[in-house]
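I am writing to request your help with a piece of structural work I have in hand. What I wish to show you is a protein chain and, alongside it, a tokenised description of its three-dimensional fold. Could you please explain, in whatever detail you think fit, how the structure tokens follow from the sequence? You will find the record immediately after this paragraph.
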Amino acid sequence: MLRVLKKAQDEVSGENIAKELGISRSAVWKQVQKLREAGYDIEARPSHGYKLVSTPDRLTKEELELNLPPEFLDQVLFFDKVDSTNDLAKQMAGTGKFDPLGLVAAEEQVGGRGRFGRAWSSPRGGVWISLVVRPKISARSASRVALLAAVAVSRARRPLPTRSHIAHTRPAFRADDWTDYHLAGGEVHCATNILRTPREDLFWWELQ
């Protein structure tokens, strides 16, 4: 629904939306209401249709799903508030879900953790995401994923006015420790962490 409204850039009839999505007119209305509840300003006029006026200035499940590759369809969990996105991602992966990948995101974390179990402040307004991937590499090579993630985040934020740099805070990768890359600059602070598990083919990656 959101993709259709953004693509239209103007009013689009409920009938055309229904045809494009293969759903009923009443289902179109229900999805419009759901988007409105998520903070999207959608104008509706009889005999004209719907028009997306504005989008909320915050992370939403709808925006995530709109901008992620098709492989993430039905593999995204989004919460208003959680203890830890990383803990939820581990639970999902441990039960055989999120295969081959999945993502847990939240507007706020109340139990986020950094290195050595330190508290990680995760208030509203940030991007708190844990990604489950199953790359065909050994856990010994996992530290490369953290570096690639830091570079990807740095490139993604280039349109922003603030500058950033990548700092490696752990020169060695150990079996029971974090490998951290921090992206810092202006009001942006990001950490990409790799935690190795007892299994050679499994490790966790977290972006905060």
